[in-house]
Amino acid sequence: MNFVDKSAMFPEFSTWVIKSMAFEAGSSNAGNALIVDDDSMMHFIHKFLLSRFGFKIFVAENGKQAVELFQAGQHFDVVTMDFQMPVMNGVQAIKKLRDMGVDSKILGVSACDEATVKELFLEAGANDFVTKPLTHDKLASFLKNI
């Protein structure tokens, strides 16, 4: 049986584990977090990180599903929102959520590091933007500033 060394695939993986486990013990009930991304690997990474900060995790595959969750009465304290997704992209979803009066803290996340993508997210109503991959340090910085 061959095992894949995750630390080779994700160099920060070991650091994430150590730092996340060192996060204060009192954060076991940080609230609800919604991951909005069509990529299952991003689900894994974001779930891993957010759960280490004490969040209960929910997932939507696209912006439309995220909007529908809020319309159904769900509340999320934090949302990580991808840019490019089928059906409804992240910027469209954020605009719709803000128009609905949603005040959740939204972190725009994209593999595209162009300044225009960050501008689009912030103009739509995101609280901040980071490039993928989301890391412990990027998430900690976002959570500290909200």
UniProtKB/TrEMBL annotation:
The keyword Transferase applies. Pfam families: Response_reg. The modification 4-aspartylphosphate is found at residue 82. The keyword Kinase applies. It comes from the Eukaryota. GO terms for molecular function: kinase activity. Residues 32-146 form the Response regulatory domain. One of its GO terms (biological process) is phosphorelay signal transduction system. Keywords: Kinase, Phosphoprotein, Transferase. PANTHER family: TWO-COMPONENT RESPONSE REGULATOR, TWO-COMPONENT RESPONSE REGULATOR ARR22. This is Hybrid signal transduction histidine kinase I. It comes from Heracleum sosnowskyi.
